[in-house]
Specification:
Elements: H1 2-32, H2 36-56
Helix pairs in contact: 1-2
């Protein structure tokens, strides 16, 4: 079972890293005054990444 635990931790780490990257992109796009469609896509990506985290944590 050790291998399963390690892979779960790795998947969680990757999900957290992705969520942070996506959130930073949203923040940067908001600060830059990006097109509303880009902001909407970023927000959808943040919601999706949070959903992945909810499944893992």
């Amino acid at each position: 079972m050790v291998n399963g635990i390690a892979s779960t931790r790795w998947a969680t780490h990757i999900a957290f890293t992705d969520a942070r990257r996506i959130t930073q992109k949203l923040s940067a796009d908001l600060a830059a005054g990006a097109d509303p469609r880009v902001i909407a896509e970023d927000r959808a990506a943040v919601a999706q990444s949070r959903g992945r985290l909810d499944q893992l944590v």
